[in-house]
Amino acid sequence: MLQDATRNWSTADATELYEVERWGKGYFSIGPSGDLLVHPTKETSRSINMKQLIDRLQLRGIQLPILVRFNGILQNRLKEIHDAFQRSIDEYQYKGRYSCVYPIKVNQQRQVVERIVEYGREFGFGLEAGSKPELLAVVALTDEKTPIVCNGFKDDEYVETAMLAQKIGRHVIPVVEKYTELDLILKYAAKVGVRPTI
């Protein structure tokens, strides 16, 4: 009985059972041999067979588990986000401008943040830092064209670091959530000699 069930199993069954179309969003599919395929640009004619990739990596002596990152997916997703907002801006004749910011707390790995800065540059994407350590990481990875949004709990050290980052040319935008934060921002802006972008 089990042999009959396996013999009749198809890639369509696997796609349906594992709901690949739902979570894969066009970036993943099941190939004719039943292997998982990755489509970094969503082009079905261009794919990477995950089983073959893992087999090749293991032949090279790379042990499991491994992290495989597809920069094409990241690049494509950034463009999709930008395009979705741009369509709405055009449709509703919005006169302002939209700038997407990536909160690095989501994934702080240097390679990911560097790719977001690189791929998002043409769209004016920025980074969000929610603490002094995150801000230091963001300042190290950006230039004066990348907006840096400072969010989260703001103590003296965090605010002073933000104002110093602005002094060295970074585009820092502190988010003011309460009056005490405004006082801190003004205090350290005056101390280092910058005009804060609030």
What is the name of the CATH class of the largest domain?
Answer: Alpha Beta
| Widest sheet, order of strands | 4-5-6-7
What is the CATH homology-level superfamily of the largest domain? Alanine racemase
How many domain regions? Answer: 2
- Helix/sheet category: alpha/beta
Low-confidence stretches: none
Radius of gyration: 23 Å
The mean pLDDT is: 93
What overall form do the CA principal axes indicate? elongated
Task: Write up this protein.
The protein is α/β, with parallel strands linked by helices and 198 residues long. The protein folds into 2 domains: 2-59, no CATH class; 71-192, TIM Barrel, CATH 3.20.20. The chain has 9 helices and 7 strands, in the order αααβββααβαβαβαβα. The protein has a 4-stranded parallel β-sheet, with helices on one face. A 3-stranded antiparallel β-sheet has the order 1-2-3. Helix 7 (132-141) packs parallel to helix 8 (156-167) and helix 8 packs across helix 9. The chain is elongated.
Provide a quick synopsis of the model.
With 198 residues, the protein is α/β, with parallel strands linked by helices.
